[in-house]
Amino acid sequence: MTRLREWLVRLWGSLAGHRDDADLEAELRAHMAFAADSADARVSSPVPPSATTRRGGVPQAMESLRDQRGLPWLDDGARDIRHAVRLLRANPVFTGVAVLSLALGIGANSATFSLADELLLRPLPIREPGAVMNVSTDGSEEAFAGGLMSYPNYRDLREHAQSFDGMVAYQLITAAIAPSRDASRMMRLGTLVSDNFFSVLGVQPSLGRSPAPDEGRVPGRDAVVVISDDYWRNTLGADAAALNRDVWINGVAFRVIGIAPPSFTGLEPPVRPAFYVPAVMASRLALADSQALDARDARAFHVKGRLRAGVSRRGAQAELATLWSGLERQFPEANAHLSLAVRTELEQRTRSDPWDTFAIGLLAALVALVLIIACANVANLMLGRARARAREMALRLALGVSRSRLLRQLLTESLLLSLMGGGVGLVFAYGGIRFLQTIPVGDQIVIAPQLDQRVLVFSLLAAIVSAALFGLAPARQSLTTDLVPALKASESVAPDRQRIIGRNALVIAQIAISMVLLIAAGMLVDGFRRAQALDPGFRTDHLMMMTLDPALVRYTPEQTRTFYRTLLDRVRELPSVRSAALTSSVPFQPGDWDVESVVPEGYQFPPGQDSLTTFGSVVDEHYFETMGMRLVRGRRFTAADTAGTRGVAIVNEEFARRFWPNQDPIGKRIRLPEAHGAWLEVVGIAKTAKYTWIAEAPMPFVYLPFAQQRRTRMSLMVESATPDAASLASPLRDAVLALDVNQPIAKLQTFSHLYQERVIKMPTMVIQTVSAIGLLGLTLALVGLYGLVAYSVARRTREIGIRIAVGAGTTDVLAMVLRQGLRLALIGVGIGGLASFFIARMLSSALVGVGEPNPTTYLIVPVSLVCLTAVACYIPAWRAARVDPLVALRYE
Q1: pLDDT range class, residue 164, cuts 50, 70, 90
Q2: d(C-alpha 389, C-alpha 385), whole Å
Q3: Residue closest to 430 by CA, chosen among 110, 781, 56, 847
Q4: Is 14 exposed, middle or buried, given 0-12, 13-18 or 19+ CB atoms closer than 10 A?
Q5: b/e per residue, 305-330, with b = 16+ CB within 10 A?
Q6: 301: β partners
């Protein structure tokens, strides 16, 4: 036994580089203690308590052999962590590269998660949000309807449905609100709510109370309001005395009865309403659709229901489907061709905004690829360390340590490394979140991703998953070492063929994924740059704009027309004003698009459909001149097109091409069934322009004359005679207030500012984001390739020295090493190129006008990738070519 111990001491000394026998025996005893701990045994040690290991080595022998008390698994875990910390400290280069790789991958994913959480994933700020379902009525043409429901249908379902503890209805509105009668009005978003809104959702005001049930049942009787915490703090100065005082909404005094809690920001994630009033007060607010409470065909309300305990979504769907069949039979005209659906909040959000959902999903997929590359990097590094630690693992196994115990130790090292990467990754996540907070949005829409508790939890989970991804394979490789060859070898154990193939496969996968990332990034960058250069179809400079709605201060339709007519006359008399016009929809302005249900004359609809939904706008006779939009045929609207004359309309080229192909569209007619109007004659064909997005596919569009339509909310577009359109801001504001000091003004800005935000800044952010993701993935892949080639050179040092000693030249060694790296790179580029072909087709179909493949991208990306991999391989190749044969022959 003594001779065996002496042999083991000498063996460990040859492995660890020790020369002092006392130190060697102490460290050996530590490993024996590690074996004893794994078997839950108590071992007494002849080693004196003062015996210690060398700096950076394994735990002290006496510490390992101390009597275990309390929870053994907890004590073992602490020992594993201390051992892992010492190992990582002893290898700072490995630790630094691994932590930085993981930090970049986890940080990018955490930042992306914060955006997805803000827009899609975050639960509603209410009590038990998982039990609240969306109830919507869907039609055959749901491109813009959003699954809204009429208020009478809501009342009937609420009264008879037994699957819900309660159902609420709400509608977002725009209103003029002021803290007092004499204060200036501000145009703000608010919410009409059913009488049970706060009680069903479980929202308790932080101050005051919510409306009582009887305050939300009698139309126009109870003018009460709950204001948002944001409005209370920023407009009313967080004054507790604001309770039971009046605020003026559309010229009506509403008594403030409650302040919403800070956590409750509404039921539409990016929208921040300023107030909540009973839906039955719509008539007092003089809203344009105030009659919607009694119109069964006016689908204007969102409906949500809280499931009763024990009732599933499918059960609620089945019950409501039965109820809906009865309503469809009872009211066939209003409910024909409609179906009822019960959806979760996530399903409703993804359905109502599919483009944003796709964009977030695409971004998440790209950064997930970056994390996979980072994990492959660390796995490759740990596989390299597995070879260096092969004899250490063999010795531990020979001493009796179980493989499961060693596996736990190795996984502890991986988890610690991953947690360090996650911690550093939070710094990168914070920078990414700050960048995402600059996304341009509209008024009262807040997209503010935060580094909050949910992001921290996601980062922790990402770190744990990363540890599993990069830690399991190296740990398994470390524990499959043959004991006898490992213990007898005089040099580091040579890696087997399977391990070499595994490391090469990881590098090939990294390069292939990088190829996919770069192709996707190149397509998006090229597409958005081309989109920015597209002609929108109208001028973008020399324009000043503002939004007005005289109905918010209780103007009658006739007073509204008089107001706009007088305002236009005064504005056109201002110096530097070339022309002025009115429009109900401003291009590229979010949430400002009119949706029209149209019946083109002579068009054959598919079975079950009797109209089509398209974008439109109400404009006056000067709109095309002011906006610089061209008519390709026919005429513009004129002052003669009044309410008492024949109804007219102008359609764009795409509308005429799609619904009247190979026909003369001038003189054709369209009808607006929702307005119960007569046929409108098409008198002009406008050039197809861009309406919602600069890269959108050509879409049908309808223009209607302002004089023949009942619209109150309009935007004033003013063309400046000078390039400085912003100088008109003050004169325009003065012109409005001179007519009515209480008239609220919104969105006073230059059109070029809106264009820059929506068409230039947002795509530029996309370009910067996808470019950064692509370059990040490429950098990590190159680091992985460099590490593999450097490892290979180190492993073949003696071979290279022999080659040089027998006459191999510098060029021969360089070519040998470069050939290895380039072979892997070419295989990865080939696989990545094949995958990129399918990815490119998917992007092209999803991002029409943006994701078009460019042949130059398919040429530049692979050539650049091969050249960069050659550079990454050259450094270790150059070092290999400078190996001293005498040193190499003694290398171990």
Answers
A1: very high
A2: 6
A3: 110
A4: middle
A5: bbbeeebeeeebbebbeebbeebbee
A6: 149
How far is the C-alpha of 381 from the C-alpha of 177, rounded, in Å?
62
Q: How far apart are CA 708 and CA 644, in angstroms?
A: 8
| Residue showing tokens 């504005």 | 571
Q: Which helix (H) or strand (E) holds 696?
A: none
- Compute how many other C-beta atoms are within 10 angstroms of the C-beta atom of residue 207: 18
Record the pTM.
0.78
Integer-rounded Cα Rg, in Å, for the chain is 36
What digits encode the pLDDT tens for the residues 435-493?
A: 888 877 766 777 888 888 899 999 989 888 888 877 776 776 666 655 555 555 544 44
| DSSP state, residue 727 | G
Q: What is the pLDDT of residues 181-224, one digit of tens each?
A: 888 888 899 999 999 999 999 999 999 999 988 888 888 888 99
**Do the beta carbons of residue 521 and residue 773 sit within 8 Å?**
yes
Which residues have CB under 8 Å from 663's CB, separation 6+?
A: none
Q: Which 3 state secondary structure label does DSSP give 132?
A: strand
pLDDT of residue 69: 43
Please list, in sequence order, all residues whose beta carbon lies within 8 angstroms of the beta carbon of residue 96, skipping any fewer than 6 positions away.
none
The per-residue pLDDT of the chain, averaged, comes to 81
871: nearest Cα among 770, 773, 778? 778
Sign for the pseudo-dihedral over CA of 449, 453, 459, 462:
negative
Q: Determine the Cα–Cα distance for residues 527 and 818; give it in Å rounded to an integer.
A: 35
Between CA 723 and CA 731, with CA 727 as vertex, the angle to 5 degrees is 135
pLDDT value of residue 138? 80
Beta carbons within 10 angstroms of residue 206's beta carbon: 14
pLDDT bucket at 64, cuts 50 / 70 / 90:
very low
Give residue-wise pLDDT tens across range 715-756. Answer: 999 999 998 999 999 999 999 999 988 889 988 999 999 998
Three-state SS for 845-892 is HHCCCCCCCCHHHHHHHHHHHHHHHHHHHHHHHHHHHCCCHHHHHCCC
Partners of residue 331 on adjacent β-strands: none
